[in-house]
Amino acid sequence: xxxxxxxxxxxxxxAIDPTEQRPIWSDDGDAPFDMGDDPEALDxxxxxxxxxxxxxxxxxxxxxxxxxxxxxxIKTVVFALLIAFVLRVLLFQPFTIPxxxxxxxLYEGDYIVxxxxxxxxxxxxxxxxxxxxxxxxLGKDPTRGDIxxxxxxxxxxxxxxxxxxxxxGDQVQxxxxxxxxxxxxxxxxxVSRAELADMFGPRxxxxxxxxLPNGKSFMTQDYxxxxxxxxxxxxxxxxxxxxxxxxxxxxxxxxxxxxxxxxGMVPAENLVGKAEIIMFSWSPGASLFNPVxxxxxxxxxxxxxxxx
Length: 308
What we know:
Blueprint lengths: L2 H5 L47 H36 L1 E5 L13 E6 L31 E5 L7 E8 L4 E5 L2 E4 L2 E2 L1 E12 L2 E11 L5 E6 L12 E2 L4 E5 L20 E2 L3 E11 L9 H6 L8 E2 L2
């Protein structure tokens, strides 16, 4: 083959100028994207690859991405805690009933929800009762017969739950196992009599429906005459205070017992909120660390029960 034939590319083809060649796309849609300024790269048998990014840049990007993700997680947790705190302070707070003092309406193991706005807000509406202010903001007195959670007056930190029986200015007394308010006996009707076995052995138990002067009606429980708190002096409720009693009349330390040993009169400032509903209930024996016991001790009949 002659030199002229080589210069013309053979078979009569025009001469190919390497400086005018363009990248050739492959069948897979890939194309070289960094040939530099060397036109001979097109004639090379070696594959052409994109210039790799420095490894250090990748590391920095990954570290930055991980850092941003951590910040977002922290922000999410903080916002969630803030929302939960606001709801707990302003709207609702859950409590678990630890004793039998409110039977037959509340049982040990009931999980209740308390409305925080019902009586306004005091320092006791906030966790740990910080001394930010005195008295109540948007304060409202409870209604006679409300079931109320309050801070025990003698330590201002222990949560108690009882029923409001006496309002400011009232006179309250127990005479022969019967409740009197302002000198008048409270209406009551015996609903049932039975025998109950407890830590003290078999005892007769009577359930009575009481109706307060304002028409509020609810069940109480009593173990018969002769109890320590079946006969009491007259209690005069001072201004800004409330007289509380448990529905389980012979098994409740309440306002019938002076503050040094019991509850005494409860200041309005100590009110935390009104008990509204039983959400869930477990009988004694359920353990937080034994999930099987949760199901074995469930009391579904008490779920979502509105409180009287």
